[in-house]
Design goal:
Elements (H helix, E strand, L loop, with lengths): L1 E6 L4 E18 L16 E19 L4 E17 L7 E16 L4 E14 L3 E15 L4 E12 L3 H5 L2 E2 L4 E3 L8 E16 L2 E20 L1 H4 L4 E23 L2 E14 L15 E6 L1
Length: 295
Amino acid sequence: DLLYWGFSGENLKYSMRTYYYQQEQRSFFNPDDPEQAIPGNEPYGQTTDIDGDKLGNWVQLEARLGARNKVVGGLDYQLDHVVSSPDSILYGDHQINNYAVFAQDDVMLTRTLTATVGARYDWNHLVGRRTLEELSPKLALVWATTPELSLRALYGQAFRAPTIAEMFTEREIGGGIDFVPNPHLDAERLVASYEAGVRWNPDALFALDLAAFRYQYEDLMYFEDVSAELGVPFAYQVRNLNSALMQGVEATVQSQWRALSAFANYTYLDARDESPDRTDDVLPYRPEHSAALGA
């Protein structure tokens, strides 16, 4: 993982990150003797192999156009390739290439009001199968009413393409859980996100941040229990949820004294399935209340 950055004059900064990760996994499992406790039973079972490669490159230019305007733009590329066997229970041989271009403009409209306008375009190609693409804009306003107090409002859209594991996993070896592949899984789209917040930072020792948010999703990816459909004890498939809503409030307190920092966070989340053919409003795996402490 290499990161390089530099300056060209006082108003231009350039940076680049190149990374490569490789994963090799070899495992052996005998469902009749998972602990390999029976003498002489070692030759029986299933050997699985997974070889994964992730290669990426990210380039960004940051230019100051006067005292009140900063422009950022760049390119982002990532390759994911997985080869596994046997393909009857694992991913098979698949590759995803994702190309993206992004740009953002930060403008000080007044001494206390800053606007940010940006967009990102993603082109995601599952080799030999299909291509997904999306343009995701964003807009933000930050008003520093005083040096200690600021208000913000944000609007944006986002896009997440499915991973190889989400589309092609067939079985979780150790747990004995079957998965039904879904190569036609669509991308998850955050079609509208709204956030309003306030941050109060009276001194270096204390900061309080409060925010309210509302996220509207289409084709949200989630795990669905398909055991009854298949007539088996445990089976799941990653599917797209037609429409979902997540809204709530979040509070964060931060404190720092010399080299010691600490924070406390609480989030209330109202998550709902809004699909026309839904059986109920429950959106699974989304806790209503969550909290975190750290130092």
